[in-house]
Amino acid sequence: SAVISQKPSRDICQRGTSLTIQCQVDSQVTMMFWYRQQPGQSLTLIATANQGSEATYESGFVIDKFPISRPNLTFSTLTVSNMSPEDSSIYLCSVESGIRDEKLFFGSGTQLSVL
Amino acid sequence: GDSVTQMEGPVTLSEEAFLTINCTYTATGYPSLFWYVQYPGEGLQLLLKATKADDKGSNKGFEATYRKETTSFHLEKGSVQVSDSAVYFCALSQAGTALIFGKGTTLSVSS
After folding, report:
1. Residue B82 in 3-state DSSP?
2. Chosen from B5, B21, B23, B99 to mutate, greatest number of chain A CBs within 10 A
3. How many CB pairs under 8 A join A and B?
């Protein structure tokens, strides 16, 4: 199983600022994903973080708002830019090893509150 | 595109009652199916999974069977406990793609 360290675990930010969330995995993984869980809602995929190339964003999410880096097979960052109160959510990193039967693992999440 | 539909909550049960949370999916090909659980104040945890038709996933007394003919993956438990109170998410994944989640079902068990 993969162990995922995500930080910060929580933060309170001012409107208009940006926050970068880090996701570190203890082993090399093929696929890394970023999700958002808004209060009382399900998880929505933001993007797939691709190693060595630009992230693949889902409908409704854009690179200018959620820039993502994936410099290697164990690390990724998600930045929430120019934040507004509507960005208050839990942001989760998820990984898959690439083997079909492997479990999909989640980080503990970053709880973001924007004032 | 692929999608997951699960029953609306909240589901409120007494301890030792039988639990069923319905989940159906729409997908091309042969996805893997999952149930995740989120206990109050905690992160998401994998509860069980099934990767092909007629597979039964099981864990902690919970079971779900991958039914391709009805495109379903209903979660069941014979006797729920107060500690089972949580939000349950049904999800699917195709090889090499991210999980697609249902909206979640809140289960509340009282003693």
Report:
1. helix
2. B99
3. 50
**CA geometry: angle A38, A56, A8, nearest 5 deg:** 45
Give B24 to chain A, closest Cα distance, Å: 16
Q: Is the pLDDT of residue A36 over 90?
A: yes
Q: pLDDT tens for residues A87-97?
A: 999 999 988 76
The radius of gyration computed from the CA coordinates of chain B, to the nearest angstrom, equals 13
Confidence of residue B30 (pLDDT cuts 50, 70, 90): confident
Amino acid letter, residue A44: T
Closest residue in B to A34 (Cα–Cα): B98
Q: Which of B24, B25, B35 is nearest to B1 (CA)?
A: B25
Are B99 and A33 a contacting pair at CB < 8 A? yes
**Residue among B51, B95, B98 minimizing CB distance to A45:** B98
Question: Residues with Cβ < 8 Å from A67, sequence gap 6 or more?
Answer: A78, A79, A81
Query: DSSP E strands: which ranges in A8-115?
Result: 10-13, 19-25, 31-37, 43-49, 56-57, 68-72, 75-80, 89-96, 105-106, 110-114
Give the tens place of pLDDT for each residue, B45-97.
Answer: 889 999 999 999 999 999 999 999 999 999 999 999 999 999 999 999 887 67
